[in-house]
Amino acid sequence: MSSLHQKEEYKKKRTGLIYDPLMLDYHCLWDPIYPENPDRIKKPYERCQFYGLVEQCVNIPGRLSTDEEVLKCHTERVNKLMREMPNMSYDELMHVSTQYDSMYFHQNCDKAARFALGSSIQLLENLMDDKIDNGFAIIRPPGHHAMHDEPNGYCYFNNAAVVARTAIEKYNLNRILIIDWDVHHGQGVQYQFYDDPRVLYFSLHRYDYGNFWPNLRQSDFDYIGEKDGKGFNINIPLNKTGFGNSEYFASFFNILLPIAYEYNPELIIISCGYDSAIGCFEGRMNVTPAGYAHLLNALSCFTNGKLCVLLEGGYCIKSLSEGVALSVRALLGYPCPRVEDFKRPEPEFVVTLNNLISVLRPYWKCLQSLNDIDDSIILEKYLEDWNLKYRKDIKFYTDQTKPEQFELTGFYPLYSEEENMQWDKKIDELIESTDLFVPEKRTCFQLEDEIQYTCSFFTRIENSEISPIFSVGEQLVKRNFTNGLVLVKNFDNRLNRVEIPRILTEKYERVKKVMNVVLSDDVSDLIRSENILNIVIGSKHNKKQQSDSSNLFLIFEDLDDATLVTAFLRIILPIAYQFNPDLVLTYTSDFEALQNNKVTSLGMSHIFKYLSALAEGNLVLVFQDKVSILYQKVIEMSIPVLNGHGLSIPYPLIPDQNQRNRIKLWIDHLKSIWNCFQFNEKLPK
Ligand SMILES: [Zn+2]
Predict the structure, then answer these.
(1) How many angstroms is it from 671 CA to the middle of ligand 1?
(2) Which candidate, 504, 479, 519, places its Cα nearest to that of 622?
(3) Domain Histone deacetylase: where (predicted)?
(4) Once rounded to an integer, what is the mean pLDDT over residues 267-283?
């Protein structure tokens, strides 16, 4: 594993970073092993320094928040209580701590909490004033559990909620997406915006049918918001431990991202907790540090990648630190590290996903497909069964069950010494095996001699005897460049789409598997070949094309941007992650949908963006030079993606009912070939 050096071509993104030792100045006075402690921000920041990331970021000074800002989401009572902290004695601090669930107070916690909140707002202001493209606030205390009139779960003030409120009031934003992948449910955020469609709250959290803290009935999948906000609160409760990248990515591909394309957010706030990461004793989930980079890459498809990332939980210092560093690295625009072992999502997760789709379907078109029957009837019956089966013995936390005094220590579920050592070893192995090598140069460019284009954006390289596609592929395999762009006249025999990848796999040890993504109606040269997965998206039917484990033909009449992107999310990406290629080649040529402008640079750039997360960014975009694909279009589609920049959608992208049905039919058809489609079972009856 090599540390990163600043690369000229990778400096293009302005990533804001906020960190200040002021937030180290408080800790639990009566428990030396309390999980929430100063190392939680100190070590992640040091890890970013180790990788050389800090000097590549725009380092933004934090600041204290004002009373006015605190009062946007909290009562004067809480504000005043916090102001009293510096003058409290040890006994008084202890007494106040017994009044709140999973809390400790300290003379300096008020200052740190105000600083964490002020810094979060500072990050938002820098984003909105276009001083940065995205940003990460390495802050403590966390915020997402803090309620209107009640500190809760290590949180005093609700950083994410106040940032969202500020975005609404100061910047007149109407569509803010908050994504909360901290392993605990951010009930404080949910309560703040439960009836407000201006904030779409999406939380993935451990639930254990209600047995996991904060033990709220309100954290389950059927709490979807109320009044105008109905459908704008999305909970994915995880009822089993051990879920990892496969389940988290499936939540994104099937629920969050399709809904984000329909919602079209103006700002994305991430309540970024790493207690969902591998080795954390609180969450006991298995998301890998690299997994977070992929989630951030996907979210960069919206709002020009304007991501406001706020640290929440994370109690395994090693996986927390690595997770933060790889997240900051992804924000800077570096290619995502590889994620291995992408597998079929666990059955308990599948049930949750289907439950959620059934309750959200009435509010989001993207979730409505074939076999829609009366949702209200099914749901009522289904919830009844669910109550009988899972909820009857559970003691949910309510105002009535609230204890006189809360425990001060020992309520957190630590690992044994032996378990700690095992996890530590696993994380070390994971870090060791994660390849963070980055080539000196980013994008290489090649075209056939007879094409009359000049490209000032990228480095043109020498042509090989075989073909321009081969020479660019070879540059990537040799790790001289990360990605490439090629323009050719024709895909004739010399440029066979199977032959070139085959030669690369034979010649280079590093390339064992190649994925070809073909956007074309002419696929005559595609033949079955070992270690090569062909994915063809076309608009004309051909009876000879039968999908199998090495060839996937997706034919859509009247293909448009929305259908193309949705087909990618729901069909192609699960397969691509499961296949885990070493190199991705895309070929865009005779493609009716592109010629008649139903598919545009918009849809194309989004699918390229998702593909750029695979194979450590080793992506070659090949275009056939024809009148139908103007050079201007090629540049629009390619440059932001190849440079690692964020994208946006100018209007919601929702496939129409026919296309949604077609996607569903394709999934049903492919289920027998690819087991990653397990989650597309019949909805509950
Ligand atoms: Zn948490």
Answers:
(1) 35
(2) 519
(3) 35-330
(4) 97
Q: Two tokens at 288?
A: 């890998």
Q: pLDDT confidence of 377, banded at 50, 70, 90?
A: very low
Phi/psi of residue 269, each to 5°?
-110, 135
pLDDT for residue 319 is more than 80? yes
C-alpha 220/C-alpha 208 separation (Å) is 10
Q: What domains are defined for the chain?
A: 8-433 (3.40.800.20), 442-654 (3.40.800.20)
| pLDDT on residue 665 | 87
Residue 493, pLDDT above cutoff 90: no
Cα-based angle 564, 567, 573 (whole degrees, multiple of 5): 115
Say which of 145, 184, 205, 606 is annotated catalytic.
145
User: Among positive and negative, which fits the CA dihedral 47, 49, 50, 51?
Assistant: positive
Residue 376 to residues 352, 382, 657, 685, Cα–Cα distance (Å): 18, 10, 20, 11
Distance CA 361, CA 83 (A): 45
Query: How far, CA to CA in Å, does 14 sit from each of 92, 258, 427, 642?
Result: 45, 27, 30, 16
pLDDT of 374 over the 50 cut: no
Q: Examine the pLDDT at 2 and tell me if it is beyond 60.
A: no
User: pLDDT tens for residues 643-681?
Assistant: 999 999 999 999 999 999 999 888 888 888 887 776 555
Give the rounded distance of the alpha carbon of 209 from its chain centre.
25
Q: CA angle, 205 as apex, 201 and 206 as ends, to 5°?
A: 160
148 classed as catalytic: no
CA of 275 to the centre of ligand 1 (A): 6
SS3 53: coil
How many alpha carbons fall within 13 Å on the CB side of residue 177?
A: 22
Tens digit of each residue's pLDDT (9 = 90 or more) over 449-462: 767 666 666 777 77
Is 492 a residue whose pLDDT tops 70?
A: no
| Other Cβ atoms within 10 Å of 232 Cβ, number | 26
User: How many Å lie between the centroid of ligand 1 and the Cα of residue 313?
Assistant: 4
The 8-class DSSP code of residue 254 comes to I
Report which DSSP code applies to 237: E
- What one-character-per-residue DSSP string does 510-558 give? T---EEEEEE-S--TT----TTEEEEEEESS--TT----SSEEEEE-TT
Query: Given its phi and psi angles, is residue 284 left (phi above 0), alpha (psi -120 to 50 degrees) or beta?
Result: left
Kindly give the distance from the C-alpha atom of residue 241 to the centroid of ligand 1, in angstroms, as a whole number.
14
Chain CA centroid to CA 46, Å: 24
Please give the Cα distance from 34 to 26 (Å, whole number).
Answer: 12
| Chain centre distance of CA 602 | 20
Q: How many angstroms does the Cα of residue 409 sit away from the middle of ligand 1?
A: 17
- Show the DSSP H helices in 550-656 as ranges: 561-567, 573-579, 592-595, 601-611, 631-642
Which of 55-59, 65-69, 261-265, 379-383 has the lowest average pLDDT? 379-383
- ipTM, two decimals, is 1.00
Q: In angstroms, rounded to a whole number, what is the distance separating the alpha carbons of residues 228 and 233? A: 11
Q: With H, G, I as helix, E, B as strand and everything else as coil, classify residue 361.
A: coil
Per-residue model confidence as pLDDT tens digits over 379-391: 555 666 667 777 7
491: Cα within 13 Å, side-chain hemisphere = 23
In contact, 157 and 144? CB cutoff 8 Å: no
